[in-house]
What does this fold into?
Amino acid sequence: MIQLISEYRLHRLPFVVLALMGLTGVFVPSLSEAQTTNDGHALFDAVLRDHVDDGAVDYPAVSADARFADYLEQLRETDAQSLPRAQKLAFWINAYNALAMKGILDGSSPRSFFGKAKFFYTDKYEAGGVKTNLYDLEHDILLPLNDARIHFAIVCASRSCPKLRAEAYDSERLDQQLDASARDFINDATRNRYDRAQKTAYLSAIFDWFEGDFERAAGGVQKFVARYLNDEHIAQELDSESYRVEHLDYDWNLNGKPPEKR
It folds into this structure.
C-alpha cells in the first residue's frame, strides 16, 4: 500500500555469567544473569519501568541512564534472524520502541513533513543483524509476522501513538501483553471515541492507515475493535458493522518530556 509520508504513523547478546559466592556454596544471580531474563530485554524493561509514567516518557532521564545505551548495544550485537517467532516478535517490538526513543534523543522528530522523512526513513540503525530504519522495521520486519496487535505495541514517540508500556515485551507473556495493549488503546477515550446515539465511531487514524491488517485479522475494522471494547452494547453494534466510522487527526507532538537540546 502506497501512502503519502504525511499520512503515515511514521510513521550485546544476552549475558550468561553467574556470580558464585563461595563461602555458602550458593549461587547468587549477578546483574549479567538478570539480563538474560525477559528474553534478554531486562535492561530495556528497567529503563521503561523507571522512566515511563502512564505512557509519558522522561527523555532527559532516559538519555542519562547508562542502561539505555547498553541496551542499544545489545540490540546491535543480537542476531534475531533465527529466533523463534514469539521471541522474534518481542525482540523487534522492543527494538522499534527503543530506536524511536533514540531518534528523539538524537534530535529527530516526526512532527513536521520533513521531520517524518528523517525520523522514519533517513535515520538508520543496526539491530538484530540488519541495518534498517523505522519504516522498514515496521513494514518489512514486523508486519510480515502477521499480528494486527503490533499496531498497539509499537510507539513512534507521538501523543496519538499507543501509550508506551512501562515494561518490555517478553515472549512468555507476549500474547497477554499484546491483548492488553490493544484493549488499552481501543478503550482510551483520548484516542478512540464511540457515540452510540449517533452510531458513529471516531477512531484513530491507525485504523485507516492499516485497515487491511484489521480486515485480515477480524473481517473488518469494526469487528476488530469490538473484540476489545469494554462496552458490551457498543461492541455488539460494532460487530454487526452498523456504525459510521470517522478517523481522528493524529497528534504528532512528543509523548513526554523533551530531551535537552544539543
About this structure: The first strand starts at residue 19 and ends at 21.
